[in-house]
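Re: that backbone. Tokens:
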């Protein structure tokens, strides 16, 4: 793979490929579903999103076919970022951003009613109210590269949500292509974005025959059971009590992004006069921008084993406060020695306690062994013999005094 924007995929070896049926699913915005009434206010917004094809296109079949063979030959497909953008109808271009300033994203989250901590690496979907929870669920389950853990979001996913809410340009195709390439080059047996792969196969080979008897995957699309789960909250993460209103592109279909270059504002000048701004700014004061972007990994710098320079004798040099440093070193040594003495004393006490317990246990064992031997060798006839001997000994010792009759 020589180019970062080209990725050849030879689609064969169906026996070693695995899928997750709950990954890269379709969103079904069917108002006839019983539980869809709970999310009816946000459904109208989701139906006019610019990424509608990626969210809802089932491509006439749930069957994912991987063995592509035309005229007895296995065919290879060259997937590029431009092809991803073309097939999925993503509205971005090559210059669209892949991330936004974190403070602006957090401000948009707070305006959506987010009630969780802002400095965590992951954001819980359950910390949003039901309409926004439904909207975020649609984005995460269709565009996330992860095969599980869809109850939490990462930075790039919140950037997607922010771009859709504020009607901003965002490189959806670059992110999808990035994780497709990473999945192909890795040793993972589980493919990501199987529905998107099938759409590209059908785009490259319109006459591709699908064998539904030997299909590899039937995706579990959104249904009424999904809506029931979305309408419930956990006891540890109850439903947020903050009242939220629809704003920006959710409220107005003709809304245009006022900050196209810097992406620093999540409110326009008129909306900055609202009462809820003060609460958002107070919470944002606790936010710390310490983490990297979604596509970079921070490399730990290795400590160089350079020798410390020798102390210089001149005045005003770094070696001037040597006496203070020595005092600190002496104090730390005294503290360390005290700790060592305490540890030694504790060890002695523990040893004495162990010796005493061992002696008690040995005494009990010996006494028990003696009693056992006595019981095994005891004979009741020996006791009678001993008593007779005692009586005879007593009789022999007494002086004999005859009676007058015998004299």
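Recovered sequence:
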């Amino acid at each position: 793979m020589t180019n970062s924007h080209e990725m050849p995929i030879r689609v064969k070896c169906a026996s070693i490929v695995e899928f997750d049926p709950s990954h890269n699913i379709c969103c079904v915005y069917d108002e006839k579903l019983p539980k869809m009434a709970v999310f009816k206010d946000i459904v109208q917004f989701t139906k006019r999103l610019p990424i509608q094809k990626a969210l809802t296109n089932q491509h006439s079949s749930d069957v994912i076919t991987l063995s592509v063979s035309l005229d007895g030959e296995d065919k290879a497909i060259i997937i590029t970022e431009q092809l991803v953008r073309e097939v999925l109808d993503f509205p971005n271009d090559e210059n669209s951003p892949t991330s936004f300033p974190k403070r602006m994203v957090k401000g948009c989250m707070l305006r959506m009613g987010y009630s969780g901590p802002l400095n965590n690496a992951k954001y819980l979907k359950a910390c949003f109210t039901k309409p926004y929870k439904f909207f975020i669920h649609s984005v995460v389950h269709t565009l996330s590269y992860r095969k599980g853990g869809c109850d939490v979001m990462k930075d790039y996913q919140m950037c997607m949500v922010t771009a859709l809410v504020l009607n901003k340009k965002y490189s959806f195709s670059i992110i999808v292509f990035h994780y497709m390439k990473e999945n192909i080059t890795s040793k993972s047996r589980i493919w990501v974005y199987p529905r998107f792969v099938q759409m590209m196969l059908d785009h490259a080979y319109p006459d591709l025959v699908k064998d539904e008897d030997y299909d590899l995957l039937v995706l579990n699309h959104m249904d009424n059971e999904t809506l029931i789960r979305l309408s419930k909250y956990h006891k540890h993460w109850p439903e947020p009590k903050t009242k939220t209103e629809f704003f920006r592109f959710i409220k107005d279909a003709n809304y245009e992004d006022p900050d196209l270059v810097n992406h620093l504002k999540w409110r326009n000048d008129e909306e900055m006069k609202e009462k809820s701004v003060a609460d958002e700014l107070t919470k944002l004061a606790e936010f710390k921008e310490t983490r990297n972007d979604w596509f970079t990994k921070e490399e730990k710098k290795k400590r160089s084993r350079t020798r410390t320079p020798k102390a210089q004798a001149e005045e005003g040099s770094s070696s001037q406060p040597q006496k203070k440093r020595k005092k600190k070193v002496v104090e730390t040594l005294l503290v360390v020695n005290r700790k060592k003495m305490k540890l030694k004393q504790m060890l002695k006490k523990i040893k004495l306690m162990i010796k005493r317990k061992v002696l008690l246990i040995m005494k009990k064992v010996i006494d028990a062994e003696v009693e056992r031997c006595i019981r095994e060798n005891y004979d009741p006839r020996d006791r009678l013999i001993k008593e007779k001997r005692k009586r005879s000994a007593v009789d022999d010792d007494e002086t004999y005094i005859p009676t007058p009759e015998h004299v």
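Confidence is low (pLDDT under 50) at residues 1-15, 60-67, 294-302, 308-330. The chain is about 45% helix and 5% strand.
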